[in-house]
Amino acid sequence: MQYLHIYKPKVYVELGLYVGESLEKVQPFVEKGFGVDMNINLQLENLKKHKNLEIVYSKTDDFFANFNNQIDMAFIDADHCYESALCDFKNVYKRLNAGGIIILHDTDPESDNLIHPTYCGDSYKMVTYLENQTDLNCTTFPLYNAGLTIVTKKNDTRTFRRMQNNAHLFSCYRKQDKFGWLVNDCLTCIPGVNTFWHNLLEWFPELIDKTNTYTDYSVLSTSIENQLLTNNKPYYIIRNGTYFPRIQTDVKQVSLIQDIVTSGNLLTQQIDVMNNSTIVVFNTNYVYAKYKQYINENIRVKVCPLGVDFDFFKPIPDTHPNVLPNSILFMGASTNYPKGFNVLLDIINKMNNSNFCLIMKDDFSIENLEPTLRNRVRVFNKINCETIRLIINSCIVCVCTLYEETQHISGIECAACNIPIVAREVGVYFDNRDDTRWGCIADDSNFAEKINYVLEHRNVYEPRNCFIEKYSNEICKTNWVDIINTL
Ligand SMILES: C[S@@+](CC[C@H](N)C(=O)[O-])C[C@H]1O[C@@H](n2cnc3c(N)ncnc32)[C@H](O)[C@@H]1O
Questions:
Q1: Tell me, what's the pLDDT at 192?
Q2: Looking at the structure, do residues 259 and 401 belong to the same domain, yes or no?
Q3: 15, part of any domain
Q4: What is the spatial distance between Cα 290 and Cα 405, in angstroms, rounded to a whole number?
Q5: Which of 400, 402, 401 lies closest to 413 in space, CA to CA?
Q6: Are residues 156 and 209 in the same domain?
Q7: Whose C-alpha lies nearest to ligand 1, atom 27?
C-alpha cells in the first residue's frame, strides 16, 4: 500500500474488509473506493463517513452481479479458499482498466500451519495459476506471515500502450521493422576470438548474421543478391567494404573500410563499393585520408574506430613468469614485410642491454634468432587474450614498427594497460600525432633513440587516459548506433 499515494487509483475495490483497517489507510489516495464484506460491523459502518467510500455488505460473488464499473486497483482478501480467490480474481480481471493492478493476499504463507481455512486457506494455489497465464505478469512477495502477490496485464505499460496507438512516433524503436544483414566472409578467422563483427551482432539484436555461408569472396555478392530476391528485404546491410563487389540491390548499405589498397582490381572494386554505399565508415582518419580523393561528394562518410575492451585491458599487478624484466614489447604478429620485423631486429641489436618480448601469430620461434640474441628475447605464439594482457602488463614499452597499419588494435590494448608506445606514423598514431600522452612517433632512423627517450620519461605518459577517450567499445557502439539511426 506504500505507493498508493503515487499511483492514486481512480477506482479501488477491496474484497474482504474485516474491520476495514486497510481500506481506511487507502481511502485518502483513491478517487472512489468500494469495500465488500459479507459481515456488518461498527467499524465498517463508521467508514461510511468518507464520501469517496462505498461499503457493500454481500458475498463477493453477489457484489459483482451488480457492479459495472471498471477497476484500477483491487485487493483480494475475502474467502481464502482457492476456488473463491480464483472467482474473485476473474471477476476483477474482467473489469480491470489498462494499467490496472490486482493484489492478492495470503498467497505465500510462511509456514504450513497457516494453510488453514481460518488463516490463508489454500490461496497459495493462486500463484501456480497466475504464473501459468501467458497474458499476466505476477510477482509474489514473502511479506509478513501470509505473503502477497501483485498482478498486472502483460504488455500493458504506459509506453507500450502509446506505442500501439502511435506506432509512427515510435518507429525508430521498432527494430523488427528495420532489421539488417551483416555481410562478410566470416566473423573471425581465429576460432574463439571475439571481433568487431561479433560486437555489431551484440549491439544490434535485429542484425542477421549472413557470414560464414560462402565458399569464397567471388560468389559472396551474387549469393546475397539471390537471397535478397527470395527473402524479406532487410532495411540495411553492413558489409566489409573491401573484398567483394558491390551488392546490386536497392538496400541501404554501410561499408566498412579497414584495409588500404593502393592499386589494381581490388582498389577499383573498393571505389565502386564506396560510391554505391549509403555510408562509408573508415576505422581511422589515416585510412580516410587515403581514399578521400576517390569518394563522390554525395556519399556520406564517417570515421569510426573499432573499440577495445578497456574493462578487460587495464593495468594489473600480475606479470607473466616467462617475460624477462623490463622487456620491450613487439606485438607484430608475423615477420612479413609490412610488420617491419627487420626494423625490430635492428632495434634489438642496437639496444644490446635491453630485453624484448615478441607476440607472434605465426610459428616464428626463438631458434630463428641469432644465438647471441636469444638470452634477451622471449617469443610467444598464438596466445589467448588473458595471456596477452598478462604479457603487456609485464612489459615497459610497446614498439610498433609496422610500415602500414590502418588502426593497430594491439597498440590500443597496450595503451589500455597504460604501457606507452613508440610507433611509426600509421593508423591511430597518425590520427593522434599531435597528442603526446600515448608515446611518440618514430621512423627507421630513430626507433631505438625514441624508445630510450620514452623510457627515460616514462612517468609523464598517460596512454590509457589518452586512448580511452576515443577507442573504448562504448564509444564505438555509440558511433555505430548513430550510423544506423541516421540511415
Ligand atoms: C482477512 S479479512 C480482511 C482484512 C482486510 N482486507 C484488511 O486488510 O484489513 C477477511 C474478510 O473477508 C470476509 N469474507 C470472507 N469470505 C467472504 C465472501 N465470500 N464474501 C465477502 N466477504 C467475505 C470476512 O468476513 C472477513 O471480514
A1: 66
A2: no
A3: yes
A4: 12
A5: 400
A6: no
A7: 18
DSSP 163-204: HHH-GGGGGGG-GGGG-EEEESS-S-SSTT---HHHHHHHH-
59 CA to centre of ligand 1 in angstroms: 9
Q: What is the mean pLDDT of residues 166-182?
A: 62
> What CATH number is attached to the domain comprising 457?
3.40.50.2000
Q: What is the mean pLDDT of residues 9-31?
A: 97
Tens-digit pLDDT profile for residues 438-457: 999 999 999 999 999 999 99
The pTM of this model reads 0.62
Q: Are 357 and 394 in contact (CB under 8 A)?
A: yes
Pairing of strands 421-423, 148-153: unpaired
The mean of the pLDDT values for the chain is: 92
Residue carrying the nine cell digits 477497476: 71
Q: What is the pLDDT of residues 358-381, one digit of tens each?
A: 999 888 999 999 999 999 999 999
The residue range of the domain holding 267 is 175-303
* 359 vs 362: CA distance, rounded Å: 9
Q: Are residues 252 and 105 in the same domain?
A: no
Ligand 1 lining (C-beta closer than 6 Å): 14, 16-18, 21-22, 36-39, 59-60, 77-79, 84
Half-sphere exposure of 181 (CA within 13 A, CB side): 24
What was the pLDDT predicted at 285? 97
Q: Is the separation of the CB atoms in 189 and 232 below 8 Å?
A: no
